Amino acid sequence: MATLYVENVAEEIYAAIRERAKRNRRSIAAEVLEALAREFPGARELSRRRAAFRRALQLQAAAPAGPGPFPTAEEMVRELRAR
Length: 83
Known about the structure:
The chain is mostly helical.
């Protein structure tokens, strides 16, 4: 595993990292590693995200499972106001 040293971190950034680490009950190093992993995902994570995105597109394109068609929200509001 590689080691990364960072110098000259602005106080404002360091304070924000320290606060977030405290809120998440982590060390500052663990919080920085989490932020790096979130911003720079590895090949396995990118593959997982792509698969999830493709699945979401499939679900979006699929026909509704239940009976339909349903009225739009605008049609339902008009119906309620007409009562």
